[in-house]
Amino acid sequence: MNKAYVALGTNIEPRIEYLNSAIASLDKNNDIAIQNKSSIYETAPVGYADQADFLNMVVGLDTSLSSIELLDICQEIEKQLGRKRGIRFGPRTIDLDILMYNYENSKMERLIIPHPRMQKRAFVLIPLNEIAPNLIIPSTDEPVVDLMNKLPESDKKDVTKWTQSGLAEE
Ligand SMILES: Nc1ncnc2c1ncn2[C@@H]1O[C@H](COP(=O)(O)OP(=O)(O)OP(=O)(O)O)[C@@H](O)[C@H]1O
Ligand SMILES: Nc1nc2c(c(=O)[nH]1)N=C(CO)CN2
Q: What pTM, to 2 d.p., does this model score?
């Protein structure tokens, strides 16, 4: 069995429905078993500022799929949920990024693991830290908690827990 971490992001309404549908689609795949889920965070857009806030979260899963087969499933779910490719880093109904696959450190044409931008992203490291603080990221040899603590305060403050009621928790 292989262990993978997948980051989910959405900034087109209904954001919560897109997250829930993507997780349900992953979980109903016979070759995937979701083991843990982070809280959902509301996050300011990074990379391309002129767009709506995102909801982000991370799931940990066990899978018998290879990393490329898992990427195919993630891209299929993106397609089913109406993701259109447009502006780089721009708005999307759902984005599924493979952060880690076992302790692989590999670059293929379609897939780079660990995800090349994860170490700098508060919207990835804060939820990942909730479910896997001690996970070592091979390209850096550092655990998630240390990478998260090194993020600038200004990035961390743009990531707040999201609740259905709309009342922020932190
Ligand atoms: N670890 C990875 N997870 C998902 N896609 C990846 C990964 N590494 C490389 N890719 C490739 O990146 C391509 C572009 O992905 P995508 O359009 O989701 O990028 P993006 O969401 O705009 O940016 P980012 O990857 O920074 O979140 C995909 O077609 C996929 O083949
Ligand atoms: N806050 C936030 N910003 C982003 C996100 C995301 O998921 N959350 N995804 C992006 C796609 O690459 C670009 N910018």
A: 0.95
